[in-house]
Amino acid sequence: MTTTTTTSPAPPVALLERFRVPAGFALGAVLLLGVAPLALSDFRLSLLAKYLCYAIVAVGVSLAWGRGGLMVLGQGVFFGLGGYAMAMHLKLADAAATGQTLPDFMQLYGTGDTLPWWWEPFANPAFALAMTVLLPMAVAALLGFFVFQRRVKGAYFAILSQALAAALAIWLVGQQATTGGTNGLTDIQGFFGYSLDDPVNQRMVYFIIAAVLLLLMAAARQLFVSRYGELLIAVRDSEERVRFLGYNPANVKLVAYVIAAGMAGLAGALFVPAVGIISPALIGIVPSIGFVIGAAVGGRASLVGAVLGAIAVAWAQSTLSDAFPAAWTYLQGLLFVVAVGFLPGGLASLGIVLRKRRAGTGTGTRTTGETA
Amino acid sequence: MSGLSISRRGLLAGISAAGASAALSACGAKTGSDTSSDSAAKADTSGSTVKVGLLNSLSGTMAISEVTVHNALLLAIKEINAAGGVLGKKLKAVSQDGASDWPTFAEKAEALIKDDKVAATFGCWTSASRKAVKPVFERYKSLLFYPVQYEGLEQSPYIFYIGATTNQQIVPALDYLKKQGLTKLYLVGSDYVFPRTANKEIQAYAKAKGMTVVGEDYAPLGSTEFGTIVNKVKDSGADAVFNTLNGDSNVAFFKEYKSSGLTAKSMPVLSVSIAEEEVKSIGTQYLEDQLTAWNYYQTTPGAANTKFVAAYQAEYGKDKPTSDPMEAAYISVYLWKEMVEKAGSFDVAKVKAASDGITLDAPEGKVTVDGATQHVYKTARIGTVGADGLITEVWNSGKPIKPDPYLKGYDWASGLS
Fold first, then answer.
1. pLDDT top residue among B3 and B383
2. Which residue in chain B is spatially nearest to A14 when comparing CA positions?
3. CATH code at B214?
4. B235 part of a folded domain
5. Which in A3, A92, A319, B283 has the greatest CB count within 10 A?
6. What is the mean pLDDT of chain B?
7. pLDDT (average), residues B84-106
């Protein structure tokens, strides 16, 4: 919120301020929906679609971690729940399209000829779509309720999130007959009746993902500037003071946590048609850390910073890992350490930090707030 | 205040974009309709060189195994180029790192096919990575040569399976144990697709052939905690252990096994994922006299193998062992070369059509491609680990076994797929 403090009340500056955000938003929409589809090949566009899914997770991370101070190191759980809910429906639809009752992997590795009871409702597209968001939100609500009421925070909350991610990944691997085990759910052919083999439909998936990202960014921005957004920052910076003022910080944090989980779930659901696979390897501890690295590097408290950071880190991973396969992992870890340790506001705060440095008023990192 | 109007405008932009995308989608193909014309990728074979893709994990947990396969592939390509290439064109290897991550494998497979326009791709190790790239190769109608033994139950029209399927490795291993009078088995495996599927087949075999499975345990991939499992094995009264553990877990398992007093004499362990490279990292003292099942060992006799081992060690170092997956990777490039030359073309459909009956005097012995299943006839070999870390053959199937990925020729396996 430091960026919106205008020291000079002169009309041109105010006008600039007024149009800065919508102009930036329009630019983003033009780039994502106009320039990218024209400039990129089908293959590059499908890669961008994947990066945008990570960016959707980053929107939630920006809310929960950047604004709420909740170190959400287990977003893989929600990403996975959303992804599996979507993939289960698409696998069932694929099976139905070829006249089978069971998805292909169940015929190979399953034990019976009947569909497990908990798969059955996912044959309904409306139910599956709703579950991609509601299931992660419900899990987050349940977990968050107990955790925040008991005032678990900081590192303990991060460890708990990680344990949950590890547990879910191990469980999925163990249930090979019903979840596909380590392979995950793969070989997805159709997306609500449209063949994913067709490049035109792949582009459609990209447009949907880009539109969802823009919508969620708009919604998150709205939330940031609302009264709730102010309260969330207050909880992040001084939970006890907020409590003395008569608010229940647990509820404030819970809302941010649940919304972030819903966004991660939606990202997981969109990841499935874009990439064609969801597997326990996308859910465990390492990918969960991966989800926050982009946001940390770009600037977790800044919406645009977090989104651009997530896209940039995913892009770097794709390109740099080819040239330096062994070194990339170290670089990724280093980026995270440097960003969290020396530039908590991420690259988005670099300008402010430098300006303050020059003005000789300290490091300026406080402005973006510390995490719990 | 201003925030409200801003996001409303943003909302409108988003909604109109969604509308635009829906309109665009109207011309996309529905599921089930034929899209072969627009999605098949064309390999670029017009120049004086032809690109081939190498898709292995060069980083991450699988790198230790997959880098050796990558080396073997590079050796084969180098040799083929030195002998004049394929159809007069030199091969250019394009390496992509799968990074031990399944979606990355799918992404890199697409990059090889679409960006590099490779004529064929060689690689993948884990079943999960193969399952991840399978739809990509099928979508673009491009070829993958897969060099590792696997759990069977698969037959993609765009994959050639150069490693053993279960009836060329696990079934002969069970036959061997039965012949030795070792009929009470304990199954220990890593928790992923290959061990779980293999053990399902072992259970069916045991039930039909009068063997008993006295225990079945799985450890998470990478787990190094085997105290409990080894104690259970010790108390089970089993004659032998059938081991499908992968990677690092073997180190911990065999150390625990030895320290609990179990030996190759009192209760032999037959492993299907321990080759020469792994023996070195686990330690010969823990593995001496234990059994392995493969189709190739560094010690396999024959001029073709002497030449392969000498060439590999000249390229990568005197102390470097050769193993079954490395040999399968090495011959996979030669098999593709033979197919292309028989077809007289790099065209995928023609190469596939030419594949049936291609034979090679490989380091592992004679191999023949079975065009119907796109698997390879291979000789099964049981070996014991020696004090020098090499594996010596104690039994082989006498002749190459016809691949049967769905175990259709085995009555006891009728309920499996």
1. B383
2. B2
3. 3.40.50.2300
4. yes
5. A92
6. 89
7. 92
